[in-house]
Amino acid sequence: MGKPAWGGPGGLAPGRGGGQGGGGPGLTRGTSRAHLARAALEGVAFQVLDVVRAMEGEAGLSLKELRVDGGMAQNALFLEIQADLLGVPVLRPRVTETTALGAAWMAGVGAGVLGLEAVREAWTLEARFLPRLSPSRREALYQGWRRAVERALGWAREEG
Question: Alpha carbon of 50 to those of 39, 57, 145, 153, 155: distances in Å?
Fold first, then answer.
């Protein structure tokens, strides 16, 4: 498991400060680009899991499904990993670049040209990614992630 050094959603996750670099316990001469790419995807998915767990704890609610958009939503492997780690379905719409579209929809709602129901109906499912991991396996992976993060944070403190 790798720990990417990106700010992204992990910058919002509990126990994270800025400035720490990436870490990669277990890197060997046999580590390939594919291993590093997979580790990066897993790292982002674990950071999303950290944020979701924090939000669930604060809100007292449980996530039932995750609807995604943006560039990473086009990566099926990432969405499979995310569904496995969250333990809920991950839904990808037909249109994944929705920042401008969402702003336009909300402007239409605000101007009274569109109703919320029209916006709901405009969202169409392209793919559903279902979790495949058992809860015990999911938790074991998450605890391994937490240990890796703690180690990486320790390394950053030692260097700083």
Answer: 16, 11, 10, 15, 20
If one counts every other C-beta atom within 10 angstroms of the C-beta of residue 108, the result is: 14
What are the strands, taking DSSP E only, across 50-129?
66-67, 90-93, 125-129
Mark 29-45 as b/e (b = at least 16 C-beta within 10 Å).
eeeeeeeeebbbbbbbb
E strands within the chain?
Answer: 66-67, 90-93, 125-129
Output DSSP code: residue 64: -
Q: DSSP state, 67?
A: E
Q: What is the pLDDT of residues 13-23, one digit of tens each?
A: 656 555 445 54
Instruction: State pLDDT tens for residues 70-114.
Output: 899 999 999 999 999 999 999 999 988 888 888 888 899 999 999
Residues shown for the chain: 160
pLDDT digits (tens, 9 = 90+) for 106-126: 899 999 999 999 888 888 999
119 by Cβ neighbours in 10 Å (0-12 / 13-18 / 19+) ranks as middle
